[in-house]
Amino acid sequence: MTATDPALTALAQGWCALSALHGRIEAHIERALQAKHDLSVREYSLLDVLSRQHDGEGGHLQMKQVADAVVLSQSATTRLVTRLEDRGLLERYLCPTDRRGIYTNVTEAGLRLLEEARPTNDAALREALDEASRNPELKPLVRVVESLNVPA
After folding, report:
1. What is the 3-state secondary structure (H, E, C) of 19-45?
2. Each residue of 76-103: pLDDT tens digit?
3. 108-120: string of b/e by CB count within 10 Å (b at 16+)?
4. Maximum distance among all alpha carbons in the chain?
5. Which terminus of the chain, N or C, has fewer Cβ atoms within 10 Å?
């Protein structure tokens, strides 16, 4: 295969289209969350991921798992957690069975903000997908996203 191979060119074009769709959606949601709730997409995602934790076996996520879930490095995730903790939306505490482990939980204020922001996030996502579907290059990708049935 060469750099001008049609298969590679098609693959690169597909990746560019997927990247463009992601960028458009994220930017649209970011503007809506910032305007209405003073939250970034990453902050919303972190609150959402952490709100799904539960007590019991495997119920709490380690920072690496959180970082993977919000698609950030561990250091960026730690900075994000610190920002939200400073705003009173998250709290950290030591793992009761392993004093080296630190857990992060969403506070009541964080849960309230998440619930207030969820309809904004969902509406902005729908708007971004509807807008993207009017672009012939992005329409097939939008259909794929809409057809996914991924558990939360």
Report:
1. HHHHHHHHHHHHHHHHHHHCCCHHHHH
2. 999 999 999 999 999 988 877 777 778 8
3. eebeebbeebeeb
4. 57
5. C
